[in-house]
Amino acid sequence: MSSLPEPAPSSRVDSCPLCGAPVTANEDRCPECNMTLAGVGARPAAFDRQSLFYWAGALLVIYLVVLAIVVAAR
């Protein structure tokens, strides 16, 4: 009696990474935005809370530097 090996667990996502629509493991494309899901696995979020604060701080610093240049030019 030969037993077939079980397929490897799929690294598919539960939601589309582009639009967030729910997808099943056997779908090749997102039903909402038609993005191909081939090779897409679970990925971390693009921005975590800490990086958002760093970006906001950097933009604030840039704004203040530009504001200081404008005030100094008057």
Provide a compact summary of the structure.
The protein is mainly alpha-helical.
Shape: elongated
Residues in helices, as a percent range: 25-40%
In the predicted model, the low-confidence regions spanning at least 5 consecutive residues are: none
- Gyration radius over CA: 23 Å
* Secondary structure tally: strands: 0
Mean pLDDT, all residues: 81
**Largest beta-sheet characterization:** none
Question: Distance between the terminal alpha carbons, to the nearest Å?
Answer: 89 Å
Specify the structural class: mainly alpha
Strand content: under 5%
Task: Describe the fold and architecture.
- The structure is a single chain.
- With 74 residues, the chain is mostly helical.
- The protein has two domains: 10-43, no CATH class; 47-74.
- It has one helix and no strands.
- The longest helix has 25 residues, at 49-73.
